[in-house]
Design goal:
This protein has 89 residues and is mainly alpha-helical. The chain has two helices and no strands.
């Protein structure tokens, strides 16, 4: 016994076949839209977490550079104002 859709598909026009195909695609997307939405939310959260982490790391490293610059400046001042010996002259 042949499938009902193949038996009737012989008598359908091209437009009717396209309509049936579109309806099947729509049915597929309505069934799987929740799963796709969940994947998209997870991907968005993962990308967002990566961006926040990268931004935080960048801010932290810039702050450390400023601290190192301040320490270097303080060391230069201490060396120039400190006593003159053979080691630092």
């Amino acid at each position: 016994m042949e499938d009902k859709s193949t038996a009737t598909s012989k008598h359908l026009t091209v437009a009717q076949k396209q309509l049936i195909k579109r309806q099947m695609e729509l049915e597929h997307w309505t069934k799987h839209s929740k799963q796709l939405r969940n994947r998209n939310v997870f991907t968005g959260l993962a990308i967002g977490a990566f961006v926040v982490g990268l931004f935080s790391y960048t801010i932290l490293s810039v702050k450390q550079e400023r601290i190192m610059d301040e320490i270097d400046d303080e060391a230069k001042i201490f060396i120039t104002k400190g006593p003159r010996t053979g080691a630092n002259s």
